[in-house]
Amino acid sequence: MPSSAAVVDQVRKTDAKAVPVPGRTIDEPEGRLPRIADAREVAPSDARQLSRVFLLRLRSLEEGTPEYQYARNTLIEMNVSLVHFAARRFRARSAGGGVDMDDILQVGTIGLIKAIDRFDPEREVEFATLALPFITGEIKRYFRDTTWAVHVPRRLQELRTELAKSREALTDLLGRAPTVKELAQDLELSEDEVVEGLVAANGYTSDSLDASAGSEEDSAPGRRTRSLADTLGEADFAMELFEEFHTLAPLLAELDERDRRILQMRFGDEKTQAEIGAELGISQMQVSRLLSRTLARLRSGMLAS
């Protein structure tokens, strides 16, 4: 089989849309595409020349034929280096988001295939110029639609990207992390919109509550590390009061108006028994007896329930 350099040399010597292989002549009715042993090994400079020949020929072939499949598959193999080039930009996001690099390359290859199918040779545009936006766009769409741990609206997903770019640029300019106000001015947004975007960005990745909350130094052998669950939240003692209030409410509703009023003045308004007696026109002794009787009744009702 001819090497890629030999094939390219043939391409440069002819303006024909198909390049002959040994045993056929250019004057034959239908010139066949050159056979390339390993399209992935074709040098980028040679791939540009060959891609144009294959793309021109692809438009004249009937879809589904062996020759069409060969031309299309060879174009994919020859230009897969464009996918690797575009994927490098997302290496950091891949590591931070727990995304396998192989998945990114597969998604980028889908963008390459779309570029091959939509390329118009008559526009006289370099194939790489068209293919890179297709590849990058497909990878960005993959990150946007599948890598968020919590679903958020698309506008907030896009705002997260803009905030990341703005923060990086301002950090280089100011020599420190920018404030919310500075981010808002740079992006011409309100501070509330910036805060909303920053909060939404927390939904991009998630960690298990069982994950270690310490650093790598804290996780040295023999040293016990706390999980995230151990550092979040605290005991809410008001929950016990809630249960008690829930039980107490129907018992209070059964009391008469005077008993409820005495309870309100004693425990709500924090009045003394003497003050309560003076307001109700009864003695302090009577107030004490009424309170004792009412409290005993409530206590008995709560224990029974």
Automatic annotation (TrEMBL):
Question: Pfam families from the entry?
Answer: Sigma70_r2 (PF04542), Sigma70_r3 (PF04539), Sigma70_r4 (PF04545)
* Annotated ranges, domain RNA polymerase sigma-70: 103-116
InterPro entries per record: RNA_pol_sigma-70_dom (IPR014284), RNA_pol_sigma-B/F/G (IPR014322), RNA_pol_sigma70 (IPR000943), RNA_pol_sigma70_r2 (IPR007627), RNA_pol_sigma70_r3 (IPR007624), RNA_pol_sigma70_r4 (IPR007630), RNA_pol_sigma_r2 (IPR013325), RNA_pol_sigma_r3/r4-like (IPR013324)
Keywords, A to Z, come to: DNA-binding, Sigma factor, Transcription, Transcription regulation
The source's domain of life comes to Bacteria
PANTHER family xrefs: RNA POLYMERASE SIGMA-E FACTOR, SIGMA FACTOR F FLAGELLAR
Q: Cross-referenced NCBIfam families, in alphabetical order? A: SigBFG, sigma70-ECF
Q: What is this protein called?
A: RNA polymerase sigma factor
Native source organism of the sequence: Streptomyces cirratus
